[in-house]
Amino acid sequence: MELIVEGVRQALALLLALDRELLTITWLSLKVSCSATLISLALGLPSGTLLALSDFPGRRLIISMVNTGMGLPPVVVGLFVTIFLWRNGPIGFLEILYTPTAMVLAQAVIATPIVTGITIASIQNLPAKLKLQILALGATRLQMVWILVREARLPLLAAVMAGFGGVISEVGASMMVGGNIKGQTRVLTTATVMETGKGNFDVAIALSLVLLGLAFGVNYLLTVIQQRERPR
Amino acid sequence: MLVARILCAVLLLVMSTGGVAAFAAGEGGKTVILATTTSTQDSGLLDLLLPIFEKQSGYQVKTISVGSGQAMKMGERGEADVLLVHSPAAEQKFMAAGFGATRRLVMHNDFVVVGPTADPAKIRGSGAVEAIRRIARSGALFASRGDNSGTHAKEQGLWKAAGINPEGQQWYQQTGLGMGQTLNVAAEKKGYTLTDRATYQALRKNLSLDILSEGDGKLLNVYHVLELNSVKWPKVNRAGGKAFADFMVSKQAQQLIGSFGISRYGSALFFPDAGKTLEALGL
Description:
Chain A is 77% helix and 0% strand.
């Protein structure tokens, strides 16, 4: 109990002093996870919409795969991305292992199925007659898709939150592909693991508090947007 | 539409910062990948040495802190440029197989057997082999790294010398974690473990563990710096690896190693050994 109180006290001291290293780590966490979420949105929204609205053989299989992918373990992603990015691996010529770019890549792999899966569910949850009605009013197919996506925008924001939440909190992949290098690829989660290993529990608690705060802040922003539009 | 506008603003902000993240990646060439053991990082030694090396040489060091076993595996695959490890028997095999170019002695400290103050297995003051024999006989918990690290290799050597096979025994638990976390496990479960002195000293304030067996010649812990064979792996940064290895045995680095930790822990954590032979250390 004493450790927790002392840890929180030290954590607040570090936060209030705006410790330079803490700021660097926090900023990188935000950059990497936001970039990864953005990429996953660019990939997941269109493919999710397509899967929800189209009909072709093998569609169910693909959707099951996407749904399985929503629970993709970060360490597994980390392992495979590392093997691919090794100097002597299939895409080693890119030379991006142990860089933030590699972390963005791995996190995007983790977040994309999450965004895709929730997109499929949100679009499919729209009333079935809506589609017919839009078409009956003379909309082109593209216009119809656009209207449906707009109608589903509130649940789609949940996809953004889930995707971001999934990657900002993961440690396995970031540790493997980033390497937790000081000043370069050290993010909040990997730094927490390292400081715990070093026995610096106060710093670890400080990092955890920042991580929680960050996750809360981003989700609060998104929730405010979402709830403002809630049907009353 | 307000939502769309806010979202657009957020996305633009993120994209611009994401661009920075992607940009910061492609420096290549001037980076050196150092694969090393957890003890050099967890003790804080590298935090002291690397900034100085980076400033002098212009290279940027990427430290991948893993067990010695994994570090050498990375070396075998040409995924690192230089190794700083402490697993002599495995290093000799590594060199004999032609994976390394040079292997130079950097420093040593020693391993110690730590355990709860109450010492249920009564090992206090005994030699290393006798100590683990007593732990086995008493059935007191022993936390093993279990990760092919240098410490794990040393521990396996001790079990072999004692003629005991601890695998699968109830009292023998493998954590698969780094030294710092394994020490925490041992402390929490009131068990024994083998640790390098540097990590133990750096973490002692949080641990309820005492040094119970030390000073045995079998417990010497030596660190070597290994340059890799770039004939085998052309992508290895030979020059960068050599620069780092040269730095580690330089007068300046050796002096820093020898004085590291004195002000904070009251005694040095590592003893500089550049230019010495293993025989001089009594191995």
